[in-house]
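Input chain follows. Return structure tokens only.
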Amino acid sequence: MRITGAVLERSAAVPPYADSQPFRIGELDLDGPATGELLVRIEAAGICHSDLSVVDGNRPRPLPMLLGHEAAGIVEAVGGGVTDAAPGDRVVMTFLPRCGHCDACRTDGRLPCSVGSAANGAGTLVGGGIRLHRNGDAVHHHLGVSGFATHAVVSQTSVVRVDADVPPEIAALLGCAVLTGGGAVINSARPAEGSRIAIVGLGGVGMAALLVAVALGLEVIGVDALPDKLALARSLGASAAHLPAEALDLGVRAPTIIEAAGSARAFETALALTGIGGTTVTVGLAAPDARAAVSPLLLTAEARTIVGSYLGSAVPRRDIPRYVQMWREGRLPLERLVSSRIRLTEIEAAMDRLATGAELRQIITFDRAAT
């Protein structure tokens, strides 16, 4: 079938991207779903820093590639062997397929699936196939999703069905921001009930972590370099919010720190704010050549722990229903994460806004008029 999508033609383009125009928005051919795959009509797709990191060259991927990894939509057709979703179902798409059989998949989410990771690096679906083509040439999949398009073919291991009462925008956020940020709290940090937690970096993922922490009854401190983010953090339930230098000068300490900014400086700030015996959880994706200063003596003398958390160490089919229930109960106001709604044709300007740090989640809406 013919679809419309945003294909990244070159990475490390010179910003502003609205001028250098590294994307080409146009028609592509999408093959039908093979065994174990689904055809999904995309309803909403979030723009995440992991998309920007491919555009700016920090996360090299095979090109051309149809970007987008945080999305939700309606199943239109299924291939053989698909039992967990049917045409008409709304599904959340997650960016790390889980084969369910490798050693990593037996770690209860702690390690990313080795099969899914290999497919993501190659720009294919889990089975190794490519379903996207343009003028007869292959176009790579982004993290098994390629959600910046009107339709996608995905592996059943990349989707979780949700009930129809979950709006498309909320469903999309569940696939990356909430799984990653919330999972860093619930699965990786596992803070004691009622304890204090600080979150360094209040973008979409960091703010999702804040919302989940507040929902769990934790005392939350927000840390970010942008004053507007601090005001929003307070309005979402943070007991305090500080600029990084201010937090350090005040001697802020917490037993649990979530680093969600993806920079060496933010990681160092998170370490400095971690209390004796505490845990620093890092979910931000820094540039490959980024380096941070760590004192081995401090880790030993203060019995510190550093934990890496990819996709929030999540098992999506286990965790997404939990977040849906928290949202239904009014404890998780995920609507507050949506900073703007845009058309697919605005993708490059949206990347520029994301690069400034001013946006939480810009949501591409696919209501036909929005493409």
